[in-house]
Design brief:
The chain is α/β, with parallel strands linked by helices. It folds into two domains: 9-213 and 335-398, Crotonobetainyl-coa:carnitine coa-transferase, domain 1 (Rossmann fold, 3-Layer(aba) Sandwich); 241-322, formyl-coa transferase, domain 3. 38% of the residues lie in helices and 14% in strands. The strands form four sheets. Strands 3-2-1-4-5-6 form a six-stranded parallel sheet, with helices on both faces. The protein has a three-stranded antiparallel sheet with strand order 7-8-9, with helices on one face. Strand 2 (32-37), helix 2 (60-63) and strand 3 (69-73) form a beta-alpha-beta unit. The two termini are 34 Å apart.
Length: 403
Amino acid sequence: MDKPLAGIRILDLSRILAGPWCSQHLADMGAEVIKVEHPARGDDTRGWGPPYHGNTEDAAYYLSANRGKESVAIDIAHPEGQQLVRALVQQCDVVLENFKVGGLAKYGLDYASLKAIKPDLIYCSITGFGQDGPYAQRAGYDFLLQGMGGLMSLTGQPESVPGSEPVKVGVAITDLFTGMYAATSILSALIQRDRTGLGAWIDLSLLDVQVGVLANQAQNYLTTGKPPVRLGNAHPNIVPYQAFATADGHIILAVGNDRQFQRFCQVAGCPELAEDTRYRTNAGRVQHRETLVPELSALMASQPSDFWLSSLEEAGVPCGPINNLAQVFDDRQVQHRGMRIKRPHRAGGEVDLVSNPVRFNGMSMNADSAPPGLGEHTSVVLERLLPEQKEHFQHLSKEGVIR
């Protein structure tokens, strides 16, 4: 059975993470993704190591975001390279790019220039701060945007803890969210094009995305006028919903409603807490967290993690361990769901990759090929899509325009 995006062709001019994360998802869904890279440097993340895969030059960072693509090495700063990209655009449904605002206009590869040769083109631009506004010309990186966009003001131990400071999330979450917003926006534009025949220019800003995914915390501020503060592992709107130290480690207790709190108190041997008027409801527990949490902390520290995990699981109280990544990939549920996959590597053997989490009709959605080598598919793609220029490609290769 064909995958959902079979027949859709993406010309991917993006690099680093947000754009490639988007196009990897589209490739997993069946789209043909042509990754255009500089003939000498390629995607920056190719060199973001160690670690590297085996004895190759494939950095793990690059491998994480480029499965299922064809790498075509073209120097877009060269006039003949620009002509080649324009010819490819006419064979594609979507162009994805993350150059600085105006960066592609000097090459004639901006939206206005390409729309003139393909009116129904879907063109997705990812930048740090958007196509307009006082910060439009600034470069944007995930870490900067986690800070500027408010996430780091919510992440880390409270101000009252000695030595505490704002902390970024351990993965580039702003880039990843932006990549997924880009993917859903491209899919929406494809549906619109099928209905109206019109293309679209999608303008995505890392800052906009970071503010947009502040979710309940942003709404907490808009509702009260008071900026939320760092709470460590605690939740601003639910108690108890945080990590607790046990007799031999830490676990997460995630009590989502009053019934679960009652069951927790039964397991912990303190049923009177569930009847205390201060703690009977979640609103009361939030209001009185400063007295409740120390009591719960003392109780949790009295037993080892295995006791709490098994007893609370049996009682239907949400809880779980705090796993490192070795434990994650050893977890029987993670293994059952096939979240570690292997793909043949061009250097021989196989490369381990993280699976796309989406399933369609019980089928995992993962592209069949490993992330490509730099320029691995240049000849194949160009000769397939532009056969009339085949004789010209040898000249371009000698001039260093393609690799």
